User: What shape does this take?
Amino acid sequence: MTTSVEAPPQAFTDHLLHHFDLAFGMVLELAEDFDDETARETPGGHKPLVWFLGHLTCATDYFSTLHQGTDSLVTEEFSLRFAGNDNQDWSLAPALADMIALYQAVHARAREFVAGLRPEDFDSESPLEPFGDDRLKNLGKALSIIQMHDAYHCGQIGTLRLALGKNVPF
Assistant: This one.
């Protein structure tokens, strides 16, 4: 006998995905008019756009490894370069288009997972031990942190844009 898992209510899923996609979409909008050269610029001590994209990619990828049980989509070298706050030779970063594509890929993978969540899933815990932040063990808290993390860095990308003489589109 097979048991079926009841799908989450559509209104709940729509609401959840709207918020999951919101800051992600803002990051992409903020990155729209960069090119490979300006994506590596660090005016006035700002981190470059490639760092923000890599950093956010690492965070969402880590969420997926903890709560979906997936293999990482980023290499260890990529993670070492972008997960932390170290200054690097940003000319060694992948092309901007590749950074955006990887950010989109990790978001799409996590989004598929989020789309299937039911309200009771938010209390579940990862069987893996999170590195550095115990709040990441709980699915609901980790999901909230990932969304806020993207939104937080949107503000920093906005100040980077201003330092580069660009406008903030919203």
Observations:
- The chain is about 55% helix and 0% strand.
- The CA atoms of residues 7 and 31 lie 35 Å apart.
